[in-house]
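User: Need the bound-state model for flavin mononucleotide:
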Amino acid sequence: MPLPVFDVVDGAADGEVTSARNRAAFDDVTWVHRAARAVGNPRLGTSILGESFALPVVLAPCGLVGSVRPAAEPAVFRAAARAGVPAVSSTCATASLERIAREGGAGDKWFQLYFLGGRKGAEALVDRAADAGYRTLVVTVDTPVSGHRERDSRHGVSLPVDFGIRNVARVAPHVIGRPGWLWRLARDRRSIEMGNLSQGDRTGLGSLFEEPPTWRDLDWIRRRWNGPLVVKGLMSADDARTAVECGADAVVVSNHGGRQLDGLPASLDALPAVVAAVGDHAEVYVDGGVRRGSDVAKALALGARAVLIGRAYLYGLAAAGEPGVDRVLEIFAEELRRTLVLLGCDGVDELGPGVFGNDVPVRSGRC
Ligand SMILES: Cc1cc2nc3c(=O)[nH]c(=O)nc-3n(C[C@H](O)[C@H](O)[C@H](O)COP(=O)(O)O)c2cc1C
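Assistant: Bound-state model below.
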């Protein structure tokens, strides 16, 4: 990818402190070792919202993935289906939610809701997602404004995309060295549009931030959506309790990969308090900084039912397109399997506080 596109994916808000914390928190987890245990082929599968999946991994909603590769989202969904994991389509996806449903294979499809077009627009999106066959609705609640991604500002990257001469001149040196990316973009101009926007406003963010959701909106969303409801972007036990009171079946402990409020703690560090608060009533997932199968094991050991991954699959997509996402998911499975064997665990269900008697299976510098 050209550097400005890489930075859209890899970058985070302000000083990128929270983004770095997300990674460091996984690195700081220290396993308690248990040697000489016979483990065959450990069970990697788990149930998520009542369905069985091959891995405790969900592909996170990511906007404008088409800037990485054309027609990216259907490809990402097909790879998820092959690997037996759910994938979440973003309101800000390049491809429309209907196209992803049509071309994205037969896997478990979730839709992530932003209030594009205010509440009226959100109602329409919820109905479209139901009509298109999405099973689960994810409401992201940490984006009342966009975080300030300084790398994007430096490159002049913004929405709608600015094709002015000054901006093109600034980006051109990065793009010229990436002829493959440029060629693919030239063939498919839709790569930098938002497919869920109405015609006439296809490159703008429209009214995304005019009327962001509040807890009161969760009530009507719950009444309107018959399937499982997930609230994404919580970092505290209090907010998790409120989400569950509003009818959430699951919550995602997430700081948006450090892309929103810089200065938040690592999401992994926020996880145990949320699990303690709502873990008996709702499923708890975590995202932010998950890069390896062993990170998945760490998150599960600290109480998560599953993790969401964002950048990890986008890097695979950038490197090799659809087979690149396949490969990322294979690597996650291989690493998770090896970690479980090395830990002496027969399956992911054995990971978690209390499994090792009074010992917690992991010890974090912060816990
Ligand atoms: C390029 C990019 C676009 C994203 N777009 C969205 C989005 O449209 N909606 C959303 O809820 N989260 C979005 N996220 C956040 C992810 O869903 C997820 O919370 C985050 O990527 C997890 O951190 P990780 O990338 O370190 O795995 C985006 C993340 C990235 C990297």
